[in-house]
Specification:
Elements lengths: L1 H6 L9 H13 L4 H7 E4 L2 E4 L1 H11 L2 E9 L3 E8 L6 E6 H6 L3 E3 L5 E3 L8 H4 L1 H17 L1 H4 L5 H4 L9 H8 L1
Antiparallel strand pairs: 1-2, 3-4, 4-5, 6-7
């Protein structure tokens, strides 16, 4: 199946059928079907990473969250709140542009403007889609803080690459399956 999916050229972000096979296995361990795993995983610096929305989806699917709600979203910050079933209190978390600067995802220029970190020099997702990037960072950090049993070992592409999502090489894919 991995060879057929690779030969279909529909999953060209994976450099080999072995990488596709490894991602399918990782997805199965999380209860995902093959094509959902392939659509939501990315190989970055030799490691399988997944979309933030899928990480939150796994938290919700686990049945351990009473709720996981977006409280605020602006180009300056995102705020989420959740309550774990059986807990006596909810947990609210914010992720701001200052947090992104501290994490090396954005840099503050001399004139005070912010620019996303980019290896290529082209605008990064932090430049093009600031609000969704804040949402992703906030939701994943809250997921890990409250649901570590669900999110252990799950990372998004920008966490692995310090904000610079890069193309995987064939050697990265081989390392993935060995």
């Amino acid at each position: 199946m991995a060879k057929a999916l690779y030969n279909s050229r529909l999953y060209s972000n994976f450099p080999s059928h072995e990488a596709i096979f490894a991602v399918i296995l990782r997805g199965r361990s999380l209860g995902l079907d093959a094509t959902t795993a392939l659509a939501n995983f990315h190989v970055v610096e030799g490691k399988p990473t997944m979309s933030a929305t899928l990480i939150v989806g796994l938290v919700l699917q686990s049945g351990k969250a009473e709720y996981f709600d977006l409280v605020e979203t602006t180009d300056e910050q995102a705020v989420y709140v959740t309550r774990r079933k059986g807990s006596t209190k909810e947990v609210e978390m914010a992720f701001t542009v200052n947090d992104a600067v501290a994490a090396g995802l954005l840099e503050r220029l001399r004139d005070g403007t912010l620019r996303g970190v980019s290896r290529s020099g082209k605008p990064s997702n932090w430049d093009k889609w600031r609000r969704p990037m804040l949402l992703a960072r906030c939701s994943v950090q809250l997921s890990r803080a409250v649901y570590p049993d669900v999110c252990a070992g799950l990372y998004t592409p920008d966490e692995i690459s310090d904000g610079r999502v890069i193309e995987a090489t064939i050697s990265d894919a081989v390392q993935l399956i060995t």
